[in-house]
Amino acid sequence: RDTAAAIAAIESALREEFDAGQSVLVLTASRAPQGIAEGRFLRVVPADAPELRSFETLFSAGKPRCGQLRDSQREFLFGADAPEVGSVALVPLGSKGSIGLLACGSNDSHRFNPTMSTDFLGHIGELITAALSGD
């Protein structure tokens, strides 16, 4: 499939299969495909965007993380929906987040917590990275 179809399939699967209606795919501008329209699910930002710096520990670890976010991080990711987000699963995409990140939010403050296994999230990140890289 083309990248636009892959992004649409990712959004649909997250919403329908993972029950993650408050999901955001943040891609760095250098890795985002041309002509893809941004919307509630897809955000394209410059790789050096100041807002991405607050996720440096996530990117340097290169592994998914679950739990709470700072208000500024929630607002960057979820905009007007930020106050409703109680917990988040963050998945870096690409090596050290070079492509961007996936954020899945839940109204339940305990749904995504730091003690849960992130193996499945890691696999999702690998699949999304492959789909967006054309691998």
Fold and architecture overview:
Helices cover 35% and strands 21% of the residues. It contains five helices and five strands; from the N terminus they run αββααβαββα. A hairpin with a 6-residue loop joins strand 4 and strand 5.
Largest sheet: 5 strands, mixed
How many helical elements?
5
Radius of gyration: 14 Å
Helix-strand pattern: HEEHHEHEEH
Q: Which structural class fits the helix and strand makeup?
A: alpha+beta
Strand content: 15-25%
- Total number of strands: 5
User: How are strands sequenced across the largest beta sheet?
Assistant: 2-1-5-4-3
Poorly predicted residue ranges: none
Q: What is the CA-CA span between the terminal residues? A: 11 Å
Principal-axes geometry comes out as globular
Assembly state (oligomeric)? single chain
Mean pLDDT: 89
Helix content: 25-40%
Gist of the model:
The protein has 5 helices and 5 strands, in the order H-E-E-H-H-E-H-E-E-H.
